[in-house]
Amino acid sequence: MQELENEAGIAETYDTGRNLALIIGTTGAILLVVHQLFNIQLFGIVLLDGRYLALLAAIFLSLSFLVFNRRGERLGPVAFYDWILATLALASGVYLACVAKLNLSEGWEYAAPQTAQWVAYVFFALVLEATRRAGGKVLFAIVALFSLYPTFAGHVPDPFSGFQSTLSEAIAYHVYSSESIFGIPMRAFGGVVIGFIIFGAVLQHTGGGQFFNDLALALVGRYRGGAAKVSIFASGFMGSMSGSVISNILTTGAVSIPAMRRTGFSAKTAAATEACASTGGVLMPPIMGATAFVMASFLSMPYVEIAIAAAIPSLLFYFGLFVQIDAYSARLGLRGMSGPDLPRLNATLREGWPYVLVFAVLIFMMVVLRQETAAPFYATVLLLIVNQIFPRHRLTVAGLIDVLKQVGTGLTELTAIILGVGLIVGSFSATGLAGTLVNELLALAGDNVFILLIAGAMTAFVFGMGMTVTACYIFLAVVLAPALEAGGLNILAVHLFILYWGMVSYITPPVALGAYAAATMAGTSAMKAGLEAMRLGGVIYIAPFFFVLNPALVAQSPAIEVFIAVTCALLGLALICMALQGYVIFLGPLSGAGEFPLRIVLFVAGFLIALPEMDYVGIPFGPSLIAGILLAFPPLFVALRRRSTEFAGENT
């Protein structure tokens, strides 16, 4: 009994120590970021980028061994060896920061001294272990294999062979170069990602999440399928902030899934709706998780251009999901949520206008002033000031500590994954494999852009299995994007294409991690939820091909072309979604005799209307549009007749 009490006391001490370390480490990291990004130069200190990133990595890599235990459990029991690993990570990271200037001047990535080599080994091993704990075994296996690839690249058959290095040379390159662990992903993290993660956490803890949920309820809750439509809005917004599909499902799904079930949705449809809405949130501006900022770094473009380009594909995805939910609700005769359960729009806006103001400031600074780095910090400060003026969601000291813990946990997880994925980028850089793969993919496609896109979509889908959004995008941006760009496609559209197809696995069996997580909450079969998610999220399979072939759908064309392309895409996708549900909104059902052929005809008609203009592959815009409109008439006429018949029967 005494031994059990002693063990419990030790565990409690470790847990208290972990919380203290998390709060102190997160606070120190935030101060470091503010000092660097705002060029404060306190005491005349100016940090090189390499030194700044090494210090950030030292803090969050060390915290990763306290946040995730050896079994990968978030905030699980901490053992003494976790503290040892945390200390080693902090010490080795501080060493890298101290020698950053010497490393830069002497080129240690190619000729590191003996002590530096040993530190590199330790840091490399700690990054792999942190990746395993935070990212899971699948991501760890991929990262470990590719990180060691330079040591056997010369023995791999073409087209995957590359320049070979010794183990010491490879590890030194990973740790001391600016192309691997501290490459583009980590630079994006240290530049703009941190600010938006802080803003998202503060927004949730100061009532922002509740405000946007109440706003969605007030806007669409009373209409048919209202609970599901609220889920679309709320999950989309939360997913854009968090960048995590699973955590978004677990957060918003706890409210939305029971609400959908109460208003008549089947368990599988409720789970699928939440899974699709949360998946789409990661693709939705203005924040898009962390991926948009990494994309901006890869493309050397302002973040605003990425957000504007991503807005139309995101609109298409959510529009398609919304249409399907409305058609499903109409087909089953589902009603909206009852009036007493719904907040009033005027009251919601009157209480929540400060959040609208904060978002207006955030978007103004990003779009007009082009200050993507500073914008989230100013918005966060404004949010905290407003929060203290209005008492309803006033942040207390305990609440502030919770914010710091949440921010620290999120940043720790992201850092561990980004450092690990940086090893993949470094291996492709060290071996020169990226250029080789581009040429081989182009040769296999034989200059056929469709074959190249299909191969790219399948590659993105496979590598999206089991990887986080940001990790998947970074990997595909290095491996796949150059080949698609070399095929003559728009660069920005290509990067959004691989992002979308990397996300497909979250709602597509046999993986469908998002659908399975939602199925557990809804108490239904995981496979049924996955298959239903494929139908509800069907636009995600089609839209990427449309916008990668027609840059107007990513706002990369003149305004009139963008308007025409978006209008036709919305109309065509609406018909496709109605065909998938077997109900034409405003007209009536397609059920009864000949239902299946009519649905196929309507699907094809929608596809032809939404099909982008592709003159360079021989598909003009006019004929496909006219053919689609003509094909749509028969199923639309049948739906109208059947509704008229049903209405006449009811009156009789």
UniProtKB/TrEMBL annotation:
Record keywords, A-Z: Cell inner membrane, Cell membrane, Membrane, Transmembrane, Transmembrane helix, Transport
Protein's UniProt keywords contain Ribonucleoprotein: no
Residue intervals of the TRAP C4-dicarboxylate transport system permease DctM subunit domain: 124-556
Subcellular location: Cell inner membrane
Pfam families (UniProt xref): DctM
InterPro entries: DctM (IPR010656), TRAP_DctM-Dct_fused (IPR011853)
Keyword DNA-binding among UniProt keywords: no
GO molecular function: transmembrane transporter activity
Transmembrane segments: 20-38, 50-68, 80-103, 115-131, 138-156, 184-203, 282-300, 306-328, 352-369, 375-393, 414-438, 450-476, 488-507, 538-556, 562-584, 618-640
GO CC field: plasma membrane
Signal peptide (from-to): none
Functional summary from the UniProt entry: Part of the tripartite ATP-independent periplasmic (TRAP) transport system.
Entry-linked PANTHER family: BLL3936 PROTEIN (PTHR43849)
Protein name per the record: C4-dicarboxylate ABC transporter
Organism lineage: Bacteria, Pseudomonadati, Pseudomonadota, Alphaproteobacteria, Rhodobacterales
